[in-house]
Amino acid sequence: MHKLFTPFILLFTTxxxxxxxxxxxxIIDDISAERIKKDISxxxxxxxxxxxxxxxxxxxxxxxxxxxxxxxxxxxxxDCNDCLEVSYQKNFVEKGANPRITKDxxxxxxxxxxxxxxxxxxxIIMSGDIDSRVSASNDYTSDSPGANDNASGMxxxxxxARVLSKYKFDNSIxxxxxxxxxxxxxxxxxxxxxxKEKGWDIIxxxxxxxxxxxxxxxxxxxxxxFRIFSEPVPPTETENERNMRRFYxxxxxxxxxxxxxxxxxxxxxxxxEMNPMMIYRLDRFGRGGHHRPxxxxxxxxxxxxxxxxxxTQQHQDIRIENGISYGDVLEHVNFDYAKKLTAVNAINLxxxxxxxxxxxxxxxxxxxxxxxxxxxxKVPNAVGYKIYWRDTTSPTWDHSRYVGNVxxxxxxxxxxxxxxxxxxxxxxxxxxxxxxxxxxxxx
Length: 443
Ligand SMILES: [Zn+2]
Hints:
Strand 9 and strand 10 form a beta hairpin. The chain contains ten helices and 17 strands. The strands form four sheets. Strands 1-2-4-3-5-8-6-7 form an eight-stranded mixed β-sheet, with helices on both faces. Strands 15-12-11-17 form a four-stranded mixed β-sheet, with no helix packed on it. A three-stranded antiparallel β-sheet has the order 14-13-16. The site of zinc ion has 4 residues, from loops. Keywords: Hydrolase, Metalloprotease, Protease, Secreted. One of its GO terms (molecular function) is metalloexopeptidase activity.
């Protein structure tokens, strides 16, 4: 019995400790710049995808665009034995809801769900946007190609679905085309509300908005830099939680920030040629994006995007002025770069969809002691746990210790005052949950 049992334990331990999974490299290799280019071109060819644009034409306007996106997801689904549940999620918005809604409009999102086998009601979400705009925010008839903003994010989402639909996952993956972004984040608001009402357990949202420009207005050209925006703590935190932070820390350790660190670490592991920049803020200065409505309801969500934006190519009428060619046209998109950022999404969707949930509770103690103590709630299907810690000034979880299949542990010689701590659950396949920051104190 003992002899039989030992190799079994060893196998689990080895897998749990292993650093990389070859399937992740396959996923990176399968993402196609050509297909992304083709999809961005198709989206551009709808002329305008403005939220208030034509919905009847089969060749122009947002109606034609969303029907095409839905049919693309259905085609992908046919190739994987109907592995995607494809539908519209609709939200009626009345004229005057804000100055950018000049008539009654249905804000229609396209949803494709690849159902997880172990945790069908846990969701990791990738989103892009369907809609576009030009200089005047309410001009819904002029040509508005929105090649980078945000056909690139939408095409990346379609391509991730094509590649990942060849695999089976433990958690559900949602591929999302959101509408109404430019008019006031209406598609995200509607979808987040829908998810909340349905009781979705959301692991996180990857909002992709502009993933195809490598020439910045700052003069920098880089096909490896990209940004991961995450807010510090959820806006839904309670007064009590806010007070606790004063004494125990956590100002830079909210759920969205942990998701950002997860992506950062995974990219450093599997795509070391890339330069992920964690930006410690919700979004660009004073600007918005579709992860925010999810954050507003307490869900983890980050924005993944290019590092160097070009403002002459965003929200602009197509024209030449003082020798500068304005407009968000196809020619300005770098498809190889969009492919890389799509791969960033795909490997993180896969890793999270293959991972067990994080422990619900992590209690920490060790006040005036030479060691840090931990107790956490057990995670079904986890084969072990990994304790992480870092200097309080470090953005990344720099130290870790795999502690096996236990529910408490003491880190001897580590003083609680000098570090931040967290824990992950590790699956038999080696994939890890996002880090759970302590949410309880051991007295
Ligand atoms: Zn925009």
